[in-house]
Amino acid sequence: MGEQETQIHSEVKKFSHEDLKDITNYFLRTVGRGGFGTVYHGYLENQTEVPVKVCSLESTQANKQFLAEVRSLSMVHHRNLVKLVGYCKDGVNLAVVYEYLPRGSLFDHLRGKDSSSALNWRMRFNIVLEAAQALDYLHTGCGMLHRDVKSSNILLGQNFEAKVSDLGLARMFSADVNSIITLSGTPGYIDPEYQLTFTLNEKSDVYSFGVILIEVVTGERPILTGRENIHIIKLVKQKLAQGSIEDVVDSRFEGEYDMNAVWKFVELAVMCTRDEAANRPTMADVVMHLKDCLQIEEHRQKGKLEPSEKSDTNTSSISTPQSVSVSFAPDSR
Predict the structure, then answer these.
(1) Beta-strand (E) ranges in 179-242?
(2) Would strands 154-156 and 162-164 be described as parallel, antiparallel, or unpaired?
(3) Cβ(255)–Cβ(249) under 8 Å?
(4) CB within 10 Å: which end of the chain, N or C, has fewer?
(5) Of residues 136, 148, 205, 285, which has the active-site annotation?
(6) The most confident of 126-135, 147-156, 178-187, 190-199, by mean pLDDT
(7) 19 included as an active-site residue
(8) Which residue has the higher pLDDT, 66 or 213?
(9) pLDDT mean over 185-208
C-alpha cells in the first residue's frame, strides 16, 4: 500500500473492483451520469444503500491525483457534507462510494423529476442555509474549494436535510486532458472571471452558490432556453431594476413568504453573482446574511411581531458587512 493510501482515514474502506460488482449487482442499476462517469445504485454487506460513482479518468495525471483527492475527502467532516464511505483504486478501475441520500437532489425538487412535489419557500431556505454552512466550512475550516457547486450537487436526506456532494471530483477531472470537461464546473454556474483567467478561488464557489440562490427563489434553470438563451441572473436583474419582486418569485410559493426576507435573499444572490470576484461576499458573509433573512421569516411564521414591530422590520435594513452592501432594494418595503 502506498504512502497516500496509508494516510486515508481508517473509516474509509478500500474496495476492489470485484467488491463493486457485488455491491452494484454487476452495475445493474444506473442512477446518474456526469462528466466524471456513471453512478450506480448498490448495497453494502449490511444492506446499507450507497451510490457508487465509477470514474472515467483517462489521463495519467488525473489517475495519480485520485488518491490525493480521496485522502483529502477522508479528512473532511461536516454534517452538511456527504460522507465518503469508501473508494476503489484497482488497476485502471477508479470509483468512490458515498452515503445514500434518499430524497435526491435540490435540482430534482426545483423542476426536475420531482417537480410535482416542489419544496416550499421555508424548506428551500433551510436547504441553502445548510449548504452554505458546508461551503463555509470548506473555505474557512479546510482551505478547500468545491469547484462544481450546483443544485444537483446538493443532496437531500429523509427529512430534507441538505448535504453537499461531489467535493474533489471537479479538480480530478479538470486535470484529465481526455475528459469532456474543459473547465472546472458546469455551464450556467461557472464564474465569468474564471472563464477569462482559468484561476479558481473561493469566490468562484460563491458565484456558483449565488446562481443556486436564484434558482431557489425563481424555480428556474440557470440558463433559460427559448428564442435566445438567457442566463437567469440577467433576467432577475432586469426585473429588480423595475422594482418588481413578485415577477421573480416562484409562483408555487403561493404568497407564503415574507417580502422583506425575499428581497434580502435576492439581493444576496445578486451580490454573489457579481462579475468581479473581489466584489462578492465570502461564504461566511453569505451564511450570516442568510441567518438574518431567516430571522425575518421566522417572525412571520410564528406571528410574534406586533403591528408596530412589523412596520419597523419592513423599513429597516438588516445589518450587513460593508463588503456585502446591497443596492437592489426598493425605496420602501
Answers:
(1) 223-224, 230-231
(2) antiparallel
(3) no
(4) N
(5) 148
(6) 126-135
(7) no
(8) 213
(9) 90
Has residue 64 got a pLDDT over 90?
A: no
Q: Running DSSP on this structure, what letter comes out for residue 138?
A: I
Question: What pLDDT is recorded for position 69?
Answer: 74
Q: Count how many residues are written for the chain.
A: 333
Q: What is the pLDDT of residue 330?
A: 39
Per-residue pLDDT band for 331 (boundaries 50, 70, 90) equals very low
Closest CA to 108 of 147, 149, 155: 155
Q: pLDDT digit string (tens) for 221-266?
A: 999 887 578 899 999 998 888 887 888 999 888 888 889 999 999 9
Whether the CB-CB separation of 216 and 154 falls below 8 Å is answered with: no
List every span in the chain annotated with CATH 3.30.200.20. 3-98
CATH H-level, domain 3-98: superfamily: Phosphorylase Kinase; domain 1 (3.30.200.20)
Read off the pTM.
0.83
> Any binding-site annotation on 153?
yes
Contact 186, 194 (CB under 8 A): no
Phi/psi of residue 164, nearest 5 degrees: -80, 135
Domain with CATH 1.10.510.10 in the chain: 106-321
Q: With 90 as the cut, is the pLDDT of residue 323 above it?
A: no
Query: What CA–CA distance (Å, rounded) separates 78 from 263?
Result: 30
Q: How far apart are CA 144 and CA 277, in angstroms?
A: 17
- Return the closest-CA partner of residue 168 out of 59, 53, 47: 53
Average pLDDT over residues 20-47: 91
The response to whether 53 counts as a known ligand-binding position is yes
Q: Is residue 93 annotated as involved in ligand binding?
A: no
User: What pLDDT score was predicted for residue 4?
Assistant: 57
**Cβ contact 268:289 at 8 Å:** yes
